[in-house]
Amino acid sequence: MNRTTLSLIAGVTALAAVTGFAAVSSPDAKATDGTAEAAAHLPVERTSLVCPAPSTSDLAETTYTSFTPVTKGAEAEGRAGLQPATEQKPDESKTEDDKDAKSEKPLLEPEDPGKPVTGETTGGESPALLGTAEGRFAPGWTVQETTTVTAGTGRGMHGVTCTAPDTEFWFPGASTDADRTDYVHLTNPDDSAAVVDIELYGKDGALKTTVGEDITVQPHSAEPVLLSTLTDEKQTDVTVHVVVRSGRVGAAVQALDAKRGGDWLPASTDPSGSLVLPGIPKDATAVRLVAFTPGDADVDLKVRLASPSGLITPAGHETLHVKGGMTTAVDLDDIMRGEAGSLVLTAADDSVPIVAAARVLRGEGDDQESAFVPAARPVGTRATSVDNTAKGTTLSVTAPGGTAKIKVTASAGTEGGTEASKTYTIKSGTTQDIEAPVPAGVKGTYALTVEPQSGAPVYASRTLTATENDVPFFTVQPLPDDRGTVAVPTSTEDLSILQK
After folding, report:
1. Please, which pLDDT band fits residue 259 given cuts at 50, 70 and 90?
2. Beta-carbon neighbour count of residue 468 at 10 Å?
3. By three-state DSSP, how is residue 140 classified?
């Protein structure tokens, strides 16, 4: 068995965010006849991830799942592992070997690419985790954190994919309402402190904040920031803008509702004139769309739903007017009507960029649970999701701009099973909930990889579901490119520069 109970550092209750990076070495230079060559796509050699502290609830039960797809051309050796994100203070009395001990004993360590490994932790004192994968484990390394909280504020299933650090993030769909407890989780994976500003935008524009500037995040540490401590204004829909002035951080928002459960709100893709929110569950009982455009220019958004039969315009919600610098929200009622779908947003003036996310509810009355579907990047070369089961997983794929062919591969399970693959055709303008392949003889959970084979760009998301005390727990993660390869320009020798 590859299931190992994680022994995490106790006493750390701060909620954290997710960070990472990927690196690759350039190939040796080769002499050519001077003709420009296409960039080579090579496997990355090092990937860094950070997983947020899962919960402050004593009832929290968390599973971490690590997986690296088998990648052609990857190095033969390597390793990967996760460590607690607790601030490391210099200790001159320690030897170099002592300082390296932290990286030599990872808490969760995979054995081979192509097979996922899991670990578990319970309670509300688990810290954020910093992870590094090198060599053969680096290309496409994916870690999922899934937490179940059975009672209290934010009860439900909280899922997040550990993602990359950056210097700017947009989170439409947060809230400072009285029923919500929303945190911005910041994690600094580097050796120097980061300085961060948090800006909030409501229905009338920028909210006055008191301590949202010059937030210092110490090296190798996490800093949770409760939104309600930044402003006195109570608003249902808020867009959070995280700007890193020095260094870099990972960021995510955990939205906890007193009545409707909770989940992680991943960052929206970069502001753009066209956005896709992929894979809204077909049994959603309510969908609330939240959009924001930076700057002063207003924009009219064309709203369409990519359904199983094609692109349709929802009656009564053909367009959404978004004022510059103000957060706009609209309830789309029963837009799903029992069918899979993805929201496709297009700005009338493509030069005006937007960010967006949807809050999704399942269930009725007191048995409702919530999750978020942000605007996502396309799958790209390959996307990976982990912690899947045959009965509790839905893989949703949409091709809004044209027909596409994709290959889906199910890995071996964490405790046994044989890999299986299948190809699918996604018709132009449609969303399909795919009946993904299941590993033969599977035991435990498994990974799914999505690889476009031809045609137009595709967008995808994965939904995990479970039922606890008659409440439909669920969480949705978009599936962008897993960063398994990078483009490296072909270099050439040019001796003429020595004569200049």
Report:
1. very high
2. 15
3. coil
